[in-house]
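Explain the record.
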Amino acid sequence: MRLWSACPRLTFHAVSICKCERYELSETTQVARFIPHVNGVLQKHRSRCAVVETLEVRTDFVGGAHGLLAHHIHMWVEFAVSSSRTKNLSLDLKPETWWEHDGSCLPRKQDLYVFPFRQLLSVSDNNWGSSLQQLHLSFVSFRPPSQFKGFPNLRKLRLDVLHMAREDLEHLLSRCASKIQWLHINRCVVDDQLTLATPLPSLLYLNVQCGLVTKIDINAANLATFEYTGRLVPIRLVHSLNLQSANLDLLMAVFEHALISLVNGIPSVQSLTSDLRPGLKYLEVPYCS
């Protein structure tokens, strides 16, 4: 514990800390062991005013201890975003068997951890989260309030298995549009077009995987790499004149339709690679312009 009070990178992995199998993390007894361990280490850092540049929490958000665990995760998030030194925050809360809840590949909102935007706004000043440069949220319900001013220095954002609306994502990105360089969206419930009115001039990498997305239309002039996994939907990256490579894994598509749609929607890409399933037809178009 004394050594950790001076460690700038803290990773709390519940399986390692509780010395248990992952399926046991849903038990209240394991949650009761994990929580005081994390609280104890963070308290040491608070009391010594020690710098924490990276805070990672990896546990399964499932079982009867939802409320207890959520309360403490709120405090851990507050610790990170209220710090002037924390640059990286990762909440990996996806349970090993989360898809068994309703048999689908997308989460139910009631099963997810609710990111505490409103609680943070009530206890923090206007500079909260200003030092964050990387944010990873997994198994989270995400809805920033209108007064949320964003993470102004955020450069890397990864969202895995989230429940959010298009407006919520745009609200977040609009507050860090000038800095964001790396964006990964994996199996997030959008059920809408992934269209962003706010230009993202610094965005270099975009990855969108399996979700309820009906269209992708993003203004990212300097985008270099685009990766997509999912069904064939309209993709419009016409502003991305510097796009070097696009890699697409299309789950359900007709070869001719896919070719026309992709070439029209990504006219400036230098190298386009697409794997069409279930027909297993492979398309590669180098230096397409």
